[in-house]
Amino acid sequence: MESSLKLFLFVALVTFSTVIGASIGKLLGLVKGWAWYMVAFLYFFDGVICLGGTVLANGHCDVSLFIPAQLSSQLVVNMITGYLVWGDAKYVHQPLAYILVYALCILGVYLNSPAMDIIGGLTRWYSIRSSKLSAGLTGSNFGEQVLKLLQMWQGNSAMEAGCRDQLGAVLHRGLETGAIKEHELINLVLLLCREKQYGPNPLLVHWLEDLKLFQIYCEHDPAFKDSFRQTLTTEDYHKLVGMKEELIREISSFASTVSVPEIMAGSGISLGDAARSFGGRTDRLLA
Asked: Can you give the pTM of this predicted structure?
């Protein structure tokens, strides 16, 4: 609640000081003499307040929330000020179109601000209110995945592969819907690393080498390719090779369970290209 109030106050301060500054700037062209100097002083004073508020807001608020909220509110207040103070209404022949332009701008800011997920927040609030996981009632797909994972952990058939796949489904759905935030996933990774150790270990090296960006970078800088492997002990290195061989077997097993020719025919990819793709994948894993 405190952070929301702080965000609201900073947004109001910067928005109103910006809009007032724009109106004072218009007055500079309308007054003369001593009045001009007074207006110029007010313009400078307002600019100091606006700049100070912006700097403080960037230091004390979540920027991913402050900037879109401030820009959206500034658009709305500018429109109202134009209508009520500067008489824009007499120049606007299509008020609905005028309002819709501002609405589109605000929607554009909203769509480009993932942290400001108002609709997602309302959807999650409704899902929570309409579900009761303790009674087996799920109000969302994410809740259903969480309940499946819980049932797997509680059951006698809590096989490692099944739990792994279901945990992956929970994390994927949680990230997709915003139920799990990026920093929460980072916390999970750090907790798991604490169990294994934060230093060099085959699990982390395996994950790093499987990153697409890492593979692309190593094509540019081949000398860096084995840098992380060289930090491992001989025993951990053999564990790493074993992990990669196990992953290759899983990929091969998956490929044998699908009708590859049918998939290739539907996708427009030739079977030769698919074979080269699988071959390149396994080569990279063992490299």
From this structure: 0.50
Give the type of residue at 142.
Answer: F
Q: Please check whether residues 111 and 127 belong to one and the same domain.
A: no
136-144: Cβ within 8 A, 24+ apart: 140/177, 141/173, 141/177, 142/170, 142/173, 142/174, 142/177, 142/179
Q: Which amino acid is at 72?
A: S
Domain hosting 278: range is 199-287
Task: Give which of 16, 1, 3 is closest to 66, Cα–Cα.
Answer: 3
Q: What is the mean pLDDT of residues 27-50?
A: 90
Task: Clarify whether residues 161 and 254 are in a common domain.
Answer: no
Which structure tokens are listed for 2? 């405190």
CA angle 19, 24, 29 (to 5 degrees): 135
Residue 159 zone, left/alpha/beta (φ > 0; ψ -120 to 50; rest)? beta
Can you tell me the distance from the alpha carbon of 217 to that of 283, in angstroms, rounded to the nearest whole number? 17
The two three-digit tokens of residue 9, written as one number:
């106050």
